[in-house]
Design goal:
74% of the residues lie in helices and 3% in strands. By secondary structure, it is mainly alpha-helical. Keywords: Membrane, Transmembrane, Transmembrane helix.
C-alpha cells in the first residue's frame, strides 16, 4: 500500500516522477517532456499563480484552452500508470476512476471560463473540483462494473 501511495503522490507532484522512481526512464522522461510542453504552451504556471492570487478573470484571458484541455488526460494517465506499476493492477477495473477523472476534469477545463451560478471559477479551480467529481463517479462506476 505504501508503494502505491508514494507513486500517486509523486505523480501528483509532476507526471513522470513516479515512472522515473520505478526505473521506467523512457516513459518517465517522455511524460515530463509532454508535461513541460503542455504547461508552457497552455500558460499553466501563470494560470496557477493568477488563480491562487484571486485574479480569475485574468487567468481565463491568459489560458490557451486548446493546450490545457490536454492536461487532465496526461495528468491522470501518469497517476494511473504509476499506481498500476506500484502493484495497483491487482484489483479489477482500477483504470476506470482515473479515466473518469480525466474525462470529467477535461469537461471542467472546457467550461471553466463560463459563469456557474454567477461565478467564474476559472481554469484552475473548476478542473480541480471536477477531478473529485470524476474520481467519485469513476469509483462508483467501477463498483457497478465489478459487481455485474
Amino acid at each position: 500500500m505504501e508503494k502505491k501511495v508514494e507513486a500517486i503522490l509523486w505523480s501528483i507532484a509532476l507526471p513522470g516522477f513516479a515512472q522515473l522512481l520505478s526505473r521506467n526512464y523512457v516513459k518517465g522522461i517522455l511524460l515530463i517532456l509532454i508535461e513541460i510542453i503542455v504547461n508552457v504552451q497552455g500558460n499553466l504556471n501563470t494560470l496557477i499563480v493568477l488563480s491562487f492570487q484571486g485574479h480569475t478573470q485574468e487567468a481565463v484571458q491568459q489560458a490557451d484552452y486548446l493546450w490545457i484541455m490536454f492536461y487532465p488526460c496526461l495528468y491522470f494517465f501518469a497517476i494511473w500508470d504509476a499506481y498500476k506499476n506500484a502493484g495497483g493492477d491487482e484489483k479489477p477495473y482500477m483504470a476506470v476512476p482515473f479515466a473518469s477523472a480525466a474525462f470529467i476534469t477535461t469537461i471542467g477545463v472546457a467550461y471553466s471560463s463560463q459563469a456557474i451560478m454567477g461565478v467564474v471559477v476559472g481554469p484552475i479551480f473548476l478542473p480541480i473540483l471536477s477531478s473529485f467529481v470524476g474520481l467519485g463517479l469513476g469509483f462508483a462506476t467501477r463498483i457497478i462494473i465489478r459487481d455485474c
